[in-house]
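Aim 2, interim progress. The first record below pairs a target sequence with its structure tokens.
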Amino acid sequence: MDLAITLSVLAILLVVVLVFLYLSVRVVQQYEQMVVFRLGRTNEGMVRGPGLRFLVPIVDRPYKVDVREQFIEVPSQTTITKDNAPINVDFLIYWRIVDPLKSVVNVAYFAGALQGVATTTLRAVIGDILLDDVLSKREQINEVLRTKLDEVTERWGGKITTVEIREITPPRDVQDAMNRQLSAERTRRAVITESEGSRQSAINVAEGQKQSAILQAEGDRQAAILRAEGFSQALERIYSAAHGIDEKTMTLQYLEALKALGASPSTKFVIPTEFTRLAERVGGFVDQGFSAGIDPGTAASATIPPMDDPTMATRRTPRSPSHPRAPATSSVSSSPNVVGPSSEPPWPRKSSPRTPAVLRRKGPSSSRSGVTDPE
């Protein structure tokens, strides 16, 4: 009987000890902090770190706080931009607890409170930004949201580490306008690129034409120099060859030229003054022939007067009144090398060296190569 009672008491004591151990011993993980409420009160000294912790049963009530970084997903929110464009925005918030006591005492559900504050803060931030800036300045919006949320959650013992906008969905008409704008921008860039290519091509062509013109001008200059040198050498050879030609040969050349002029269908010819000197030479030959026909002995001793002989005199024989255009007559004196005053060659000698004589074709009955005085 006594033994049974003793065993029962021992069993009860064992159960009490086990219950006491269960209520007084707590294991805190490395990523946790434990806030202990003793008789409903707590302070900074009641915050326990990781490890094996003992509590006073029934008196102490523990509350564990996860201090790891966590995230919440804010569902898509319809907000209105500064230029009254409705858009849908959803984003992620990364946060962690830096003060376990405040997170337990100052807020009941930190994640829920953070999500509500993030929704209202998002609308306030987007409402101050234009649609184009919302679409192009995500990093700036993320930083503004993070700063504002961090200010609010500081009193809750939390820390907002990162805010990331995941998607911005503008209205359908805005998307169409953006697509048209994008297409126009690409077209503009293509046109600019094409114009730049055309401009560069034109510059290259102009440069090539410039170089070609320079090279061609240089070639023309060299060719002109070579032609001039060749012409100069040809003139020198002609001049050197002309020194060995006598007056008779030159007279025959002049006569050939007159023959060619006479065969031409033209009725008026402008000839140089040298042709009058040719007429003097031909007249000398004619006088010599006439002298040979009248007095053979005298003609044998007669010589052709030189062109520059001052003793050679000419005069004009008056024309017959019945034929005003009749040719003049000439006579040769008996003295050699001298033409007397009564002899007149049938050619005019009034034209100056600088005034060209004129040949005129008078008609079928006149000579084709006659030499007349200018009117």
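The second target in this work package is listed in the same format:
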Amino acid sequence: MYYTNIYYKQINNNEMNTDSKNIIKLEDERDKKILNFNDFQKQNIKFDISKLQEAYRQIIQTKKFDDGGGISHFGAICLTRIPGDPESVKGHKARGLYWTKPNTSGKEVSRDVKIDEAAYSEFVPDFENTYFKEIFDIISKKYKLGRVRILLKEPRSTLSWHRDPEPRLHIPIFTNPGCLMVIENVAKHMPADGSVWITNNTKYHNAFNGGEENRIHLVACVLDYKFN
């Protein structure tokens, strides 16, 4: 605000001198620093978005989203599980541990249950004849994965401000321009074009859907990915 006032005065007095130019330059550099998209890293891999969308439609004909133990505007369909354990994909285990700052104190607290992500090594047999199995086979060779889920964000809703134990791999399946993910103070829209992103969910973040249609992403926990 101080810089803005100085700039306004100098413009009105036609006294655009070296000092004011330096001020503007500093503000530009500050904005560039704020808009650092390093926490959204696009991967050198791409899938067929039409096949992804068709596989999603195929699954939801017989499978409902789990609400993670009664969480509003949230839904998950787990594509991997602990071998032989169908209970490992239900209720709170469809969400998992995170940390948040829920009130004016700013104190961090933990929520939900700790998940042994590395144990989720079996692709759910019910979904083996879908395109998701092909995707899983490819990305599991490239990354060490935990749970792989299809996540729903309903229209005009948002997640809490929180951080997770590990980064996340995203493949948007259905989205709209009002869907953004915010990591710290940087917002990013990830289009549904078959691209693969890894996001730094170990930092405070949220995701919101400001549109009027569901946001659907394939999301995997990535256990061996390091951000610079």
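The two ends are 32 Å apart (CA to CA). This observation will shape the mutagenesis plan for the next reporting period.
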